[in-house]
Amino acid sequence: MQSRDVVGGNVEKIAALFPHCVTERIGKDGTAELAIDFDKLRAELSNDALEDGEERYQFTWPDKRAASRLANEPVNLTLRPCREESVDFDTTENLYIEGDNLDVLKVLRETYLGQVKMIYIDPPYNTGNDFVYNDDFTQGKEDFEQSSGLFDAEGNQTIDPMQRNTEANGRFHTDWLNMIYPRLKVARDLLTEDGVIFISIDDNEVENLKKVCCEIFGGQNFVGMFIWEKRLNRENRKAISVRHDYVICFLKNIEVGKIAQLPMDEKALSNYGNPDNDPRGLWKSDPAHTQAGHGTKNQFYTLVAPNGNVHHLPSGRCWIYTETVMKEAIADNRIWFGRDGNGVPRVKTYLYAKERGLTPETMLFAKDMSTNEGAKNELKKLFDGYAVFETPKPINLLKHLSTIATDSNSLILDFFSGCSTTAHAVMKLNAEDGGHRKFIMVQLPEVTDEKSEARKAGYANICEIGKERIRRAGKKVKEEAGLQGQGLDTGFRVLKLDSSNMEDVFYTPDKFDPSLLDSLVDNIKADRSGEDLLFQVMLDLGIELSAKIERKEVAGKEVFSVDDDYLLACFDNDVNETTIEEMAKLLPTHLVIRDASAANDNVLDNFDQIIESYSNEKKITTHVL
């Protein structure tokens, strides 16, 4: 039970394209494995391959290769459900996940591959006071084995995943790049083909971040750089008062995806009228000529109006239509010459001729989006006057980004979720437009400062703040929506990253001792519940972690039903043939039991035979843990 092996998958893709470039070798564990013969592959691509030492454009830094490899390395981790901290656990489609976001993204990669329509993140800005994730590229085998468990026997985290990155650090930019690179690389896999990512950043790393994104997402998929007016007051402490932050925007595939237009506002609608009672409805007039460089020779001519007036082109311009098309448009009353017919020709643009909206602009003004201070005050009001988070983003900013990047059923991911502004914005936007967008929030449980307002208010870590915000915001959004809020999903399932539910039962030959056989009676850790196992099975089978879960009693045993019997799982003890047969009668796509759950060896021996007797109606795939 391990996250997807990305490198192995890439080797298989190369093998499909160039089978003669794949060979076998003896791996580190002594077994045969596939490997790429790069000399042959290089020869296959020799026309385009760079020679050693040949100059090329590149963006690099120390440990970049290690950071890239880190994105591909699988992890033996799982997500454990926490009902007591969740809201509407059984019915909600929203997720709140606690844990190191790189590990969480790897765990989610297989299940949510190509499923996320929009990603928004607000990572550390690398100001010299920020904490960045401390990904260890140089850890040896023995060190890894000692630290691979996330928690010790007392439940304390054994690895500190954060380090303060000060400007005095000789690897100031390097450490930040090594942090952000693998996370963005894994995140790209989760995006839909038309998906979009927004990343908030300031001047400290904006150039490096854009270069990283160009490498991971492709420079051709760069959409734009939004400038958000984050403050209104002048900052007199510095040489220059910085009033803005950036929001970098990339599409996964600009040939497929697009940024949607904004709804028409009152100001835009006021430009439309119908002074000549045109039966085609409201219209506005636009210039009938364009830049000369955009035209053909047939777009240069003298235009004669219906009243005989002659209209010449301004210098450097051409008509937007050829002379033949222009005459047809005039005859069809689609060219406006003013109320008295003596005005310059203008083209009628009809409001209802097609779906019209406003093209989003790169300038995001505080009057529309609010500011950091406004967001902080908004959060204080929600938390009874306590300033529990210093730098929240405004709800309106996240609503705006969601509006131009998602549809009503989109999945939105924020893996630096902080105080959960993104979740708040998603619920509020759903309440306003009737949408059913879902969110996944991911956040490391960073400990709050002992002297902070958050700690005074009783919040020991950022995750507690984020979860409480969603609870309070959900209630407020429903209250404000009134009757329209009925059916609005303001719940969330809490999942926590942890070591695998499976005991370590794999040993290299030098570590194996025959006495170990006596201890391998059960391969499930003693502290793991049936629901823990269920979620690991869901991950392994690629079932969304927000899927509906029901508990059923089948032949006297507790059975988990996921997505209306798509998956049936029983982890009770003393499971016999009757239980398996009754489960098979429900015709699930997947049926799961524990090896140790079987009442006796005969149950396991007859397992496949029982299932086969029902597979004529539907193919049932069985799994034994």
Plain-language structure description:
With 625 residues, this protein is α/β, with parallel strands linked by helices. The chain folds into 4 domains: 6-56, no CATH class; 71-263 and 359-498, 3-Layer(aba) Sandwich (Rossmann fold), CATH 3.40.50.150; 266-350, no CATH class; 509-624, no CATH class. It contains 18 helices and 26 strands. Strands 3-21-4-20-19-5-8-10-9-18 form a 10-stranded mixed beta sheet, with helices on both faces. Strands 22-23-24-25-26 form a 5-stranded mixed beta sheet, sandwiched between helices. Helix 4 (101-109) packs parallel to helix 6 (172-190) and helix 17 packs parallel to helix 18 (601-612).
C-alpha termini separation: 10 Å
Task: Assign the CATH class of the largest domain.
Answer: Alpha Beta
What composes the largest sheet? 10 strands, mixed
Radius of gyration: 30 Å
CATH superfamily of the largest domain: Vaccinia Virus protein VP39
What is the architecture of the largest domain at the second tier of CATH? Answer: 3-Layer(aba) Sandwich
How are strands sequenced across the largest beta sheet? 3-21-4-20-19-5-8-10-9-18
Fill in the keyword field for this structure.
20% strand, alpha/beta, Rossmann fold, 625 residues, ten-stranded mixed beta sheet
